[in-house]
Recover the amino acids of this structure.
C-alpha cells in the first residue's frame, strides 16, 4: 500500500470502504468521492477505511466515531482533505459511477409524471441507469452536511 501522503496528493482521493461502514460509503459518494464498497482489503492508490482493530498500515484510515458526522470528520482529517462543493451529488449512490446530465425528453416515462412536469434538469447513472433530479432530499442532505460543518455551497445541478 502506498504512503497516505502520496494518495492524498491525487486530484480527488478514492476510498475502499470496509463492509461494516455502508452508511459512511454512501455519504462519501454523496460528497462526490470515488468510493468502492464493500471491500475487505485496500487497493493501490486508494485509502482503505475500516473499523478493524490492528489496521495500522499506511493508507489505512481506522474510524472510531459512532456517528456519520464523526466518521466523516475522521476520514477527512486522516486523509488531509476537504470535500469539494462542486462534486457533491456527482456520483451514483448505488454503483458509484459519475452521473451524467441527460436531455429532459429522454427521461419521460422514467420518472413520476409530477417530477417530469416540474423539473428541467436530470442526471442518469451510465452504469445502472438510475435517474436523479433536484428535490427536497437534496436540500435536506445539504442542510445536514452544513450542520456537520462541511461547507456545501451552491447547487449541484441535480
Amino acid at each position: 500500500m502506498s504512503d497516505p501522503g502520496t494518495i492524498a496528493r491525487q486530484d480527488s482521493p478514492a476510498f475502499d470502504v470496509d463492509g461494516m461502514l455502508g452508511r459512511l460509503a454512501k455519504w462519501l459518494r454523496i460528497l462526490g468521492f470515488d468510493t468502492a464498497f464493500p471491500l475487505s482489503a485496500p487497493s493501490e492508490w486508494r485509502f482503505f477505511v475500516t473499523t478493524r482493530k490492528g489496521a495500522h498500515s499506511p493508507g489505512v484510515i481506522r474510524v472510531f466515531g459512532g456517528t456519520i458526522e464523526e466518521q466523516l470528520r475522521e476520514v477527512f482529517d486522516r486523509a488531509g482533505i476537504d470535500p469539494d462543493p462542486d462534486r457533491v451529488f456527482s456520483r451514483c449512490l448505488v454503483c458509484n459511477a459519475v452521473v451524467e446530465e441527460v436531455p429532459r425528453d429522454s427521461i419521460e416515462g422514467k420518472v413520476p409524471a409530477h417530477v417530469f412536469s416540474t423539473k428541467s434538469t436530470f442526471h442518469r447513472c451510465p452504469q445502472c441507469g438510475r435517474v436523479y433530479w433536484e428535490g427536497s432530499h437534496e436540500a435536506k442532505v445539504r442542510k445536514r452536511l452544513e450542520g456537520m460543518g462541511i461547507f456545501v455551497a451552491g447547487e449541484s445541478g441535480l
Notes: The chain has two domains: 4-82, 85-158. Strands lie at 15-18, 35-39, 47-50, 60-62, 100-102, 122-124, 131-132.
